[in-house]
TrEMBL record:
Protein name per Swiss-Prot or TrEMBL: Anti-sigma factor
InterPro entries named in the record: DUF6384 (IPR045964)
Keyword Transmembrane: yes
Keywords attached to this entry: Membrane, Transmembrane, Transmembrane helix
Natural source organism: Mesorhizobium robiniae
Pfam families, per the entry: DUF6384
Amino acid sequence: MVDAAATAASGGAPQTPKLSELMLAMDVVDTLRHHEGLVARELGGDARDDALKARLRQIYEDQGLEVSDRILEEGIQALKESRFVYTPSPPSFGRTMAGLWIRRGRVAVAIVAILAIVAALIGWQAWTRHTQRQATEQAQIELSDTLPRALSVAADAARGEARVPEAETAIAGLVTDGQAALARGDAAAAKDAIAKLGDLRSRLNQQYVLRVVSRPGEDTGVFRVPEINPAGQNYYLIVEAVAPDGQVLSLPIVNEETGTTDTVTKWGARVSEAVFDAVKRDKLDDGIVQNNKLGEKRRGALEMDFLTPVLGMITKW
């Protein structure tokens, strides 16, 4: 580089430094920066610039380069003045906007991603509100229209099968339960009452004869010794429910020994010793129980009508 003041004093116009000299001065500054320890010792202490120039000259001579004193001085001075050093401008709105413009591609992708996320969130919230509104409306329709009609239909169907006062009373009780559930907005309880009316109708619609089993290889009767009374005996006739078309039905039977309800096609009906002995004699006569009817379940009735008292039942023996 050329000192402008020196050029003016010599009577000539300022000259622009040659590119090779400028590049060389920049290289000197770069060399100084890469030898920070050298700079700290020579410039940070009491050593003179001449000692530093000598060191720099030696570095370049080792590389086979010859550098003039003027270039070395220019480099040292440039380092002192922090020339050839990029100093970023202070933060400002303009700097921020310029940075965004430079990175506009990545910024655009980020903005699109953010907008997509925002749109998805808005859509999800709208869908959630719509779904909740639909569910609320559906629940209101169900409580105000669907379930009341279903309850009425189920009750009418059950009443159409009822033939005894007990059945009418049971139906009325279930209808009351269903209406109370609807009044308090309890759809589950209302549905339960409707289901029970359907079960009651099916039960009323059933008809069958309770027949004592007397087939070869199958038990006709058994007796048990109660655990609480080892000296006593309980007598059971093995029975089955036969529909008018001859089909043997599966029925839920409460086992008096365990308290559980089992759905079975055969079970033991506890009778008196006298009835048990009468059936035993009937079978021993010709191997067939002639008087094999123990009871009957008529259509429209809730319970079986027994021809002889039945004191309990078992499902396993």
